[in-house]
Design brief:
about 25% strand; seven-stranded mixed sheet; binds S-adenosylmethionine; alpha/beta
Length: about 210
């Protein structure tokens, strides 16, 4: 009987997205790093975000903050494609060895910061041109912190704010608040090949 070989990585819009079967990811896992707030894989919303940025390249991409970065592929894509200086932020320090392996596979580096959304203040946010995030508003208790993070980013003058999501009600609640307060748009978005994903992107242009 022949056993199917596990897929080790996928190419997507110019980056390599490793799976948990990738030897470098397995190495990190064997070393005992176990993310605890769902940062245990690359989530498909990041495909929506990457595809959107490829199709509609934002004007200001020099300094990018990727919040709730997990393995960090969206920021890695910006570093690779736009040459952005990227700060990858997550509350869970255990995601960073996975992010480092993913960045190395893609031949780039990003800066790491352990922080909760709540702790990212206006002063720090003012150092960025663009804030990106994929699948970060997945619990009721995240609606307020993510909404307030967007409010602070707008006040700090961050020019583009892009948050992708598979369409969870918690995301919709947060995004609708941003539509009301900041005229954000919620875009129904999908990608088909080589990875299928669908959901929404909240696009806030803070020109
Ligand atoms: C579903 S994963 C998405 C990861 C990544 N953005 C992606 O698309 O693959 C959500 C991430 O948000 C992080 N996270 C959850 N709550 C957070 C908080 N309050 N502050 C910062 N990061 C948080 C988790 O640790 C996790 O890495």
């Amino acid at each position: 009987m022949s056993r199917k070989k596990a897929v080790k990585s996928r190419r997507f819009r110019g980056v390599t997205m490793p799976t948990s079967a990738h030897p470098e990811i397995r190495k990190v896992k064997r070393a005992g790093h176990e993310p605890t707030i769902h940062g245990n894989k690359l989530w498909k919303s990041s495909c929506l975000l990457i595809d959107y940025m490829k199709k509609y390249p934002p004007e200001h991409t020099r300094r990018v903050i990727d919040v709730g970065c997990g393995w960090g592929i969206s920021g890695i894509w910006c570093a690779k494609k736009f040459g952005s200086k990227v700060t990858s932020v997550d509350a869970d320090p255990k995601v960073f060895p996975y992010l480092e392996a993913t960045a190395e596979i893609n031949g780039v580096r990003t800066q790491h910061q352990v922080s909760r959304f709540e702790k990212l203040g206006k002063r720090q946010l003012s150092q960025f041109d663009m804030l990106i995030a994929a699948d970060i508003c997945f619990w009721d208790e995240l609606v307020d912190p993510v909404t307030k993070l967007v409010n602070r980013a707008v006040n700090a003058g961050v020019k583009h704010i892009l948050i992708a999501d598979p369409g969870r009600p918690t995301f919709t609640e947060m995004a609708e608040r941003c539509v009301e307060k900041h005229y954000a748009e919620i875009i129904d978005y999908d990608v088909d090949k080589p990875i299928r994903a669908d959901g929404y992107i909240m696009v806030l242009e803070n020109a």
